[in-house]
Amino acid sequence: MKFSIILIIFFFLFVFPIIAFGDLRVGFYSSSCPRAEEIVRQVVQRNFNRDRSVTAALLRMHFHDCFVRGCDASILIDIRKGNSSEKAAGANGTVRGFELIDEAKRMLERACPSTVSCADIISLATRDSVSMAGGPRYDIATGRRDGLVSRASEVNLPGPGSSVSQALQVFTQNGMSLDQMVALMGAHTVGVAHCSFFRARLSDPNMDPGLQATLGRICRPSGRDPTVFLDQNTSFAFDNQFYNQILLKKGVLFIDQQLALDPSSRGLVSTFAQDDDGFRRSFVDAIVKMGTIGILAGSEGEIRRNCRVFNTP
Ligand code: HEM
Ligand SMILES: *[C@@H]1O[C@H](CO)[C@@H](O)[C@H](O)[C@H]1NC(C)=O
Ligand SMILES: *[C@@H]1O[C@H](CO)[C@@H](O)[C@H](O)[C@H]1NC(C)=O
Ligand SMILES: CC(=O)N[C@H]1CO[C@H](CO)[C@@H](O)[C@@H]1O
Predict the structure, then answer these.
(1) Is residue 219 part of a domain?
(2) Ligand 3 pocket member 244 (CB < 6 A)
(3) This prediction's pTM
């Protein structure tokens, strides 16, 4: 009897934290920088109040970070002479939100120098911005460290013209399932796409003719590359309307429309379209998982002082 209680206590103290979170844990900074999460939240809130599109910016940044070398803030490294960082890759040309991360980093360095990683700032800021846009609230484990490498040649993200199976290949390489991929694509419920990423679809029969006419008008002027909302119904709200839109053939990107057409994913799309709570739960599960891809922890990597440059370039 006594022995089994000791076993249970041992399990929860030592074994459970390891199997549950690996090297990361919720509240990692609670003693080293107790205000860390609050500081990030305040910076995100200030930016969000000025510009609601920061939710989209951060979600995309977090995805592009985690899918190249893991969630190690390699996406934040500026291009320098001789070293073309991930920012130089075509897929990254329009990733935005770097100034918000800089602002959070400046405040955190003032409060607790060399303590909070840029990789954790991206994960925390994304989490906060999702709830500000009406999305789910969730805890994330922290303790990520910043990477020491950022190479444009390593960026291997799916393109907007990918099929579901091509996209899934990249997600599978990163340890993510089809269900998790379809849930994560729900991030396209916020944000915009430049015409250059979907021009080929202006004559695609799988697009609603009304939407096609609208996009045609917006995208026609040559020499410019305007943007349109990915979710044409509730463009700034983090909700499940993206799935309803693609069921109505109102997907803007080819890959988005394919999710509703491909037999492997359309069942999930219908489920999420009908069940906002189910979508939220699945999204949280998937983004928490995404946030653990290839993380550096313990004494690996470094805690950058400036998120845009390695400490010893
Ligand atoms: C097969 C996978 C994916 C493809 C091919 C894809 C492709 C794209 C493209 C082409 C854009 C337009 C970018 C622009 O014109 O500036 C975009 C925007 C966006 N993507 Fe994805 N994406 C994928 C998955 C994801 C995932 C997993 C997330 C986040 C969890 C995400 C979040 C976003 C957001 C929020 C935007 C709007 C960005 C903004 O407003 O600046 N995407 N995506
Ligand atoms: C900088 O570029 C060199 C040569 O292209 C490469 O070997 C090195 O890994 C790069 N450094 C980083 C930190 O990415
Ligand atoms: C747009 O979104 C609202 C709010 O979620 C919903 O009630 C409505 O049915 C949606 N409209 C279309 C055309 O999907
Ligand atoms: C901001 C940025 O670095 N954009 C680059 C993205 O990639 C394209 C194509 O490789 C470059 O031309 C852009 O300068």
Answers:
(1) yes
(2) yes
(3) 0.91
Over residues 10-46, the pLDDT tens digits come to: 555 555 544 445 689 999 999 999 999 999 999 999 9
In the numeric block, the tokens 């190479």 are attached to: 151
Query: Among 85, 150, 151, which is best to mutate for testing ligand 2, by the most ligand atoms less than 8 A from CB?
Result: 151
Give the domain CATH number at 185. 1.10.420.10
Residues 66 and 136 in one domain: yes
Q: Ligand 4 atom 2: the closest Cα is on which residue?
A: 93
Q: Is residue 311 part of a domain?
A: no
Give the phi and the psi of residue 207 in degrees, each rounded to 5. Answer: -120, 135
Residue nearest to atom 7 of ligand 2 (CA): 83
Among left, alpha and beta (phi > 0; psi -120 to 50; other), residue 25 is beta
The pick from 86, 92, 98, 150 for probing ligand 4's pocket by mutation, whose C-beta has the most ligand atoms within 8 angstroms, reads: 92
> Annotated binding site: which residue ranges?
65, 68, 70, 72, 74, 86, 158, 188-189, 231, 234, 239
The CATH number for 99's domain is 1.10.520.10
